Amino acid sequence: MPDSYMSVVKALEHSAARCQRKLNLQWVAAEHLEPTHKIENPVQYYDGWKNVVAAQGILIPGGFGQRGTEGMLLAIKRAREYKVPFLGICLGFQMAVIEWARNVSGLDGATSTEFNAETPHPVIIYMPEVSKTHMGGTMRLGLRPTVFSSDSESWSKARRMYGGKEKIWERHRHRYEVNPEYIERLVAAGDLEFVGKDEKGERMQVLELRDHPYFVGFQAHPEFCTRPLNPSPAFLGFVSASASATVLEGQMKNQVLHFVPPHPPGAMVSEAELKDLGKNTLANGTEVIVGSPK
Fold first, then answer.
1. Where are the beta strands (DSSP E) in the chain?
2. How many whole angstroms separate alpha carbon 133 and alpha carbon 108?
3. Distance between CA atoms of residues 67 and 144, nearest Å
4. Rg of the Cα atoms in the chain
5. Catalytic site residue 212?
6. Model confidence pLDDT, tens digit, residues 200-209
7. What is the pLDDT of residues 202-257, one digit of tens each?
8. Which of 114, 212, 221, 225 is catalytic?
9. Which of 58, 107, 111, 217 could form a disulfide with 96 if both were Cys (CB 3.0 to 4.6 A apart)?
10. Which of 34, 177, 208, 223 is catalytic?
11. Residue 57 in contact with residue 97, Cβ under 8 Å?
């Protein structure tokens, strides 16, 4: 499992080094946390929950498929209710939305259409502009901007970890996203806020709970851009909060003063510029404009 999540491990290690803490990383197979596993293999079930209950922070990384998702929901529920620092990445972000929808918004049976196409509450859906029949080229990929909401400046820990900047860039790799038809119901239920969205305000890209030491989810993969001397802000916030509220506060202050994005300046462009770049490709060393003739 560690090899499959090498970037996640490195992001945690870089963050722990910045915080001058020793990282104690425990891997738990999510399916081991599910009630059915208590019957199938009680030793794995209790060992898994022992690690989750003892954890100072809970992280759900990216992934695909339904396996273990009910166990993920239980771990997220514990992090939310017991104020345990939490970070959800890609699938972990989506699972946090599902957990909130079911247990706080009261949307029974809410899930992703990746797991159940007939769900009564599809809070996570396949991106509408992407083909479901063609193989290849069906993911939202690459470095893309996220815009923080205007009111997040006064309270968002995630935003402070990014130096308080209004716009940030992280690398994406996903096919599913939060269903915009459910945003109002999800937000109306309590402290959940989608503090980061795409430039049009249509795609939910960062979530955060207001009344929590650190409960943050990213649709993107911030671990892809971590550096030994410039840890991923999302992971640095998570590790800092797992150490203590004092460490987190110190790191947030430091990030506001000194954070520098790890990306080349020329790569941090708008979605509109990305689309324009997508019209140009290289074929046999010659630039070709892809599009309809005028």
1. 58-60, 86-89, 111-112, 122-126, 140-148, 167-174, 176-178, 192-197, 204-209, 215-218, 280-283, 286-289
2. 30
3. 29
4. 19
5. no
6. 999 999 999 9
7. 999 999 999 999 999 999 999 999 999 999 999 999 999 999 999 999 999 999 99
8. 221
9. 217
10. 223
11. no
Residue carrying the six token digits 């860039």: 169
Q: Tell me, what's the pLDDT at 291?
A: 40
Name residues whose C-beta falls within 8 Å of residue 254's C-beta, 6 or more positions apart in sequence.
none
To the query of whether residue 118 is one of the catalytic residues in this protein, the response is no
223 is catalytic: yes
Length, in residues, of the chain:
294
Catalytic residue among 14, 19, 90, 174: 90
**How, if at all, do strands 86-89 and 215-218 pair?**
parallel
pTM: 0.91
* Cross-strand bridge partners of residue 144: 170
| CA dihedral over 257, 263, 266, 267, signed as positive or negative | negative
Q: Report the share of the chain in percent with pLDDT over 90.
A: 79
